[in-house]
Amino acid sequence: MARTVQHSSLDALSDPEDDPLSVEEDRSRVANQRPNEDPTLDFFREHWKEAQPCSALDRQMTEALTNFYSNLDFAFRHKVHPRTLTALGLMLGTLVYVAFSPVVDDTVVNVKVGIGAAILAFILIGTLQFRDGPFIRPHVALWRAVLSLSVLYQMGLVFLLFQNKQDARHMFSYIDPSLGVPLPERSYADNCDLTWDVMKDQLDAFVLAHLLGWYGKAVVLRDYWFCWILSVMFEIMEYSLAHQLNNFAECWWDHWILDVLICNWLGTYLGMKTCEYLEMKHYSWRGFREIPTLRGKAKRAVQQFTPHDWTKFEWGMTKSFNNYIAVILLLVIVELNCFYLKYLLWLPPEHYLNIYRLCAMFLFALPATREVYQFLTDKNCNRIGPHAWLVIANIMTETIICFKFGRDEFPNPAPRAVKIFWAILLTLVAAYPVWQFWYVPEREKIRERERRVEGGKKRE
């Protein structure tokens, strides 16, 4: 009997529930075929080639996915099938159960539960129907769910943008009644004596948050140089914006010793060591049935939560104008949104909403950075991936919200020294690409023409 395969980016493997062949017939057919004759793998290759935008990434992901699929034993193969009809049945069954449950008369509870259920339904739809991204570990469905969350976050930001500042602040009190009130101001520069007692007073939970944050940045960016430049630039931004945000006012040793040399460096070091380990690690994806010992099976199960392979990033901001602009935008914008949003929306730094946002942005950034790097470094890639597109939209929408809600919030003008510094720095930042990407290539072309003319005269 001919098998009908529907070309969807997530149904790369046919669903057993829709398959006219029984499990026993399919087992017999797979057992009698050589791996290179498996029609599922052939479809996998052709389908992934159509689904991905970049040819180099096509080859890498197709090879990784087909090798992974061919190494699975039969029992596990059936567990990685999409199960779209099963998921649809479970979702509809849950909705039927809710429809016939006792009615709750509490409007606030109904609204909160309804919004939560709508979010879960959207994530389920995205997990089943969105296309695959650059990662396949621990499962492609996880990264589709991450993409769904990124879409929901963007929709929430757009909704927030259309509110006024007072209503936006008040809305968060529906999530947590303690929110919606002005934040107490705190400065870290009240006592700058370099003594142990003063330094110990500055050590709080944010020190650990600093370290973990830079560990995450190192894992995402995978570049020592990039992380160091980002670390120093952020401290400069804190100096420059201390007249707007009081918590940016810190002692000199807090900026350069506690932050840069201890927290930022240690987090970056541990993150880059993790990257080096994953880069050099030998990845072996044997089927569970091929592993004889229970310990080996447990180790293989843990490996499912590690990357299938690892790509070292070399951003090279001086190699092209696109790389230069991308790095500059990352340096200037990404780090500041978190601080301005929590100040303008009256969200305490330790509140769980801030923590959830940081964790979500970390998950969004992992596949997004991989897609941005592919777009910048692969000449055959002419389309940016969905994760990267949404993260850029998230960051820029956050920035627009900060500009809108920041009106009349910062009456103090910037100090003269800050204005002079940024005038010089921005002039250099604007002049460098003109020199590097226009003047130097044009000068090389002129010299090449002169060498050709001189060579022609010598031959004559």
UniProtKB/TrEMBL annotation:
GO terms under biological process: phosphatidylserine biosynthetic process
Any one Gene Ontology molecular-function term assigned to this protein's record: L-serine-phosphatidylethanolamine phosphatidyltransferase activity
Domain of life: Eukaryota
Composition bias type Acidic residues, residue spans: 14-23
Compositional bias per record (Polar residues), positions renumbered to this chain: 1-11
Entries under Pfam families matching the protein: PSS
Pathway where this protein functions: Lipid metabolism; Phospholipid metabolism
GO cellular component term, pick one: endoplasmic reticulum membrane
InterPro entries on file: PSS (IPR004277)
Annotated TM spans: 85-104, 111-130, 142-162, 321-343, 418-440
Stretch list, region Disordered: 1-39
Membrane topology annotation: Multi-pass membrane protein
Keywords of this entry: Endoplasmic reticulum, Lipid biosynthesis, Lipid metabolism, Membrane, Phospholipid biosynthesis, Phospholipid metabolism, Transferase, Transmembrane, Transmembrane helix
Location(s), subcellular: Endoplasmic reticulum membrane
Keyword Glycoprotein: no
Name recorded for this polypeptide: PSS-domain-containing protein
